[in-house]
Design goal:
The protein has 11 helices and 10 strands. With about 280 residues, the protein is an alpha/beta fold. About 30% of the residues are buried. It is found in: Cytoplasm.
Length: about 280
């Protein structure tokens, strides 16, 4: 035990391990040991964590279905001077887990909300993905149905940042097939499954190859999964639709070489490439 002491009237948002119990922080243990109450996504699941560290804490449920109803009670407890820890089943609360409505409500009432950082599956997976980490977007869970999932993927098709999703492994094959349909077979994908656990698997490959791999190994369709997709990388030599449209307009009024020369000057392109385009396409 350290010299740390919880502050009365404070909600602590506490990150817990995503698998390996050794990843819990000393500060998280201190907070969970001292608070008056622990708000849990699943009290039975959290009780196992508390038992593992011999923490005797009173728990109550706070999940998607009762969060809004709990807001007034939680605020009242804090105003009475009680200290409360908010945890999810694993990782950092509020990251595709319950807690947003409670935290938002408490912040509006100027009640104290303090983070106790630790494990987060999305960041853990991203750190070993081999994909670009300077810019990324976290998109949470993909829709369970193919049509809705393809719609989400289509909206992200030209996203240049690395995309991070949570997905149920049992749907992984269907998800990869949708990625192939929307983004193509060559889009780079990384799957991080069962992070920090015994059967941790981190694999990188093209979307097309992933479909074959998952079909061949049903064991990969179990556990918890983070799915990452490489951001869209434009072909530096590709001619944009805007350039094509300009060229189409000019070629109606001018000889092809003159139209190509003017378009090249406007967009800073090589006119020979534009001329090759005019020969290859039907205008």
């Amino acid at each position: 035990m350290t010299d740390f002491q919880v502050v009365p009237g404070t909600l602590y948002v506490v990150s817990t391990p995503i698998g390996n119990l050794g990843d819990i922080t000393q500060r998280a243990i201190d907070v969970l040991s001292q608070v008056d109450l622990v708000a849990c996504e699943d009290t039975r699941h959290t009780q196992k964590l508390l038992n593992a560290f011999s923490i005797k804490a009173k728990t109550f449920s706070l999940h998607d279905h009762n969060e809004r109803q709990r807001q007034e009670q939680v605020a009242s407890w804090l105003q009475e001077g009680k200290s409360i820890a908010l945890v999810s089943d694993a990782g950092t609360p509020l990251i595709s887990d319950p807690g947003f409505h409670i935290v938002n409500s408490l912040k509006q009432q100027d009640l104290a909300v303090v983070p106790v950082p630790g494990a987060c599956a999305a960041v853990t997976a991203l750190s070993v993905s081999g994909l670009a980490t300077d810019r990324f977007t976290f998109e949470g869970f993909l829709p369970p149905k193919s049509g809705a999932r393809q719609k989400v993927l289509a909206a992200l098709k030209n996203e240049t940042r690395t995309m991070v999703f949570y997905d149920a492994p049992r749907r992984a094959l269907d998800t990869l097939e949708d990625i192939v349909t929307v983004m193509g077979t060559e889009r780079q994908v990384v799957i991080a499954r069962e992070l920090t656990k015994t059967f941790e698997t981190i694999k990188s490959d093209s979307a097309g190859n992933f479909v074959d791999w998952l079909r061949a190994d049903p064991n990969q369709l179990k556990g918890e999964m983070v799915l990452m997709i490489d951001g869209y990388q434009a072909d530096p030599d590709a001619i944009s639709p805007e350039v094509e449209n300009t060229l189409k307009l000019l070629i109606k009024e001018l000889p092809p070489k003159k139209a190509c020369a003017i378009t090249a000057e406007i967009y800073g392109l090589k006119k020979n490439k534009l001329y090759d385009l005019t020969l290859a396409m039907k205008w």
